[in-house]
DNA sequence: TTGTAAGCGTTATCAA
DNA sequence: TTGATAACGCTTACAA
């Protein structure tokens, strides 16, 4: 790799001039500028990121805390995050986050990234403090369950969305509506449970802890839990299930097929997110649409602003229900 | 952020000594070592990555060229890559790669990452040359279609696997076997087509260009192409389809369901990779198992070795077929 | 319009 | 066993 010094020598100027040219500063004569560019091209000179970072105290790297790349919802979000980050000149470091590794984790980022993008995780107070001390702005995509204030949040209006979804089920005649949750509290799914509970209360529907199955956010576990639930003989069964994620909804649907439970006739199932796979199942799955591209772009824009000391108000949009066969019956239950 | 100088002052030693302690060099008295550690802890000192990178000319970052994060196969691979990279002390930069951006792309990495992890892409000769000039080792996960030699490759034995898959179809009575390809040549799917062609020849099965449908690697396109194919009236129809990816196989299955074509009775469908979703469809999909964790770990290990100037021989393992209902009939076609 | 030089926070060589 | 000090390659006053 050619260095700036070599370019300077070749062009017969000082190193400073090379910098001026590289950074498009004005006050350099056209003639010198051309000569310097020529040398740059010939030597295939590329500035050193490390040196530049050290000097300006910026890395142009952003860390993204992910929960599980095997979830298509998250992968889709990351896809768009990366897209937008590139436009903005950032490199992204994807980091799988879990509570077990949180403590060693929190010291990893100072000086290595300029900011953090979370996906609905709940951080320990001390982690938050360390990150703050290192002057790292934090933007969360999707609301975390605990409300420690990040610098900004980009999300949909979950309470509204969940209320709409439950209203739809209510109109279809459902009264006993259960929820497949993700029992890990520091996970974006957890806030969806909170929204579910609020919506149930608002509709004055009864529920208790029995109404919550633990799917762990994973398809396999959701499928297995649903299977157990369906096999357990119980006098009063639920008539509808909301899953905290589409992936879990898909697992539940498979459990129903295995046990020959008709969906939606015997049981309605719906999810959150609207991942592509919900259109490939039989029946297709009713869900809450989560506009991944829009939210991801907003999140990158927010953190860009924060890094330029601009104000960055949180972004929260309303969204739509996607009604599909898994909750729609010809004849209502009522 | 405290710097090394502050630590040195606080501990009453020189900056060099702090470095010795941080890097666990021997030759420092226990007493000084303790004093320095104390200062480090109290000041919450963390070494600066940028400074360190500049000095030792290493970033401990690796770039990963991805094709499409929306494909669960790739996302799964990345999940394991990240896992292993973390153990090895690397941060990963995921970069969506496409031919359109390849030219600007190739200058982005010098000095910013220590090496590259590809996922079956085919690079232009000049890109390869630039990367080489910058002394970046390149390891490819899955074989690229063109055989420019990377420093190492971690993959399964596609030719063997595809031959096994076709043999299975052959034994089920199929003779007219088509392939849903990904027409983008610089993509891992492309090598699977090559393996398919070889296996067809080995089994002495006839085929021509009509035998290839273009699915673009995406579920939506595969579904649509399959739909068109199925609707087009043709005297001689294929009896089996191999898709270059499971995602495309799923799209094809949906097209069949939409047109009420029975799988596997009227048409057999199978894929490659064995993503989780192939167990959630009706019928479940026969596929080639791709051990993502194993291959991903191997790839990170290979690049680690290369970065330590150790020899790193390519890794190629045989794999297994996963037989499921989408290709298995009670009564054979023969 | 261009050059000089200090400094970013490390590592590592050489002395002491 | 420890301390000075010269790089690493860049940015940016300030000087010329």
Automatic annotation (TrEMBL), chains A, B:
It comes from the Bacteria. Keywords: DNA-binding, Transcription, Transcription regulation. PROSITE patterns: HTH_LACI_2. This is LacI family DNA-binding transcriptional regulator. The lineage of its organism: Bacteria, Bacillati, Bacillota, Bacilli, Bacillales. GO terms for molecular function: DNA binding. Residues 2-56 form the HTH lacI-type domain. The keyword Transcription regulation applies. InterPro entries: HTH_LacI, LacI/GalR-like_sensor, Lambda_DNA-bd_dom_sf, Peripla_BP_I. It comes from Paenibacillus yanchengensis.
